[in-house]
Amino acid sequence: MFAIATIAGGCALASALGSAHVLRRAALRTSHQQPTPEVWFESPSPSSPTLVEEGRTLFLNNCAHCHGIDATGDEGPDLHGLEVSDRYIANQVTRGIKGEMPSFAKKLHREEITRLTAYLHSLE
Amino acid sequence: MTPAIWAKAHGATTHFPIALVLASAVFDAAGGVLAGRSVARELHAAGFWTMMVGAAGSIAAVGSGLLMTKGAILGHDALRMHHLFVWPAFGLLISVATWRTLAGRRMTRPMLGGYLLAVAVLAALITAAGYYGGELMMAR
What's the pTM value of the predicted model, to 2 decimals? Predict the structure, then answer.
C-alpha cells in the first residue's frame, strides 16, 4: 500500500514537471526572451557600500537616461523594489528587451553588471 | 488564453486544496483523539472526503500555476520559495490521498498515526507554500 502511494505521488510529480517542461518549450518558441536558467541552490548576491556606490556611477552613466536619475522611471520603468534575481537582471542588461531596451553586452563587463545589480537591489 | 486568465484561475483554485487539506488534518486528528466514540467515525469520513477533494483540487491548482508561469519549475526569489514547498507538497498530497483511498476503513491505530504524521508534514509544506504564494501577491 505504501509503495503504491509513493509511486502515485512520484507519477503525479513527474507528470507536473513534464508538463512544465513542455509548457516551457512552447513558451520559448513564441517569445524572443530567453528564460533565466534555474538552479536548486542560488548563492546570495554580493553587496557592500562600495559595490553599491560603483553600481550607482554605472547606472548614472548607462541607465539614468531612460530610467531616470533616481531610478524612479522615465522612458523606462521604475527600478525600485525589484523582486527579481541577480541572474535575471544580468540577462536583461546583457540581452536587452526587443523594441524596449538595448543590449549592454558590449558595453558592460560581468563585474560591472554585478556592481549595477548591487545598486539596483539597494533601491527600496 | 491570456496569462491573466491563468493567474485568475490559479487564484480561484489554489485555496481549495489549502483549506481542505488543513481541514482534513484537523478532522482526522480529532477522530484519532476521540477514538471509540461514535463521532470519531464521522470525523474520519469528513477527513477522508476533504482529503480526496483537496487532492483533486490540487491538480487544478498546479495545472493553472504551470500555465500562469509558462512552465516555471522553480523561478526566482519568492516564486522559487513557493515552488520549493509546492513540489514536495504536491507529491506528498497525491501519495497521502492514494494511501488513504487504498486503506479505506481498514486503518489500524499505528497506520492512522503514520498517516497523521504524513498529513502534518503535508500541512506544514502547504502552509509554507501558501505563505510564499501570498508574498508573491504582495510583491505585485
Answer: 0.66
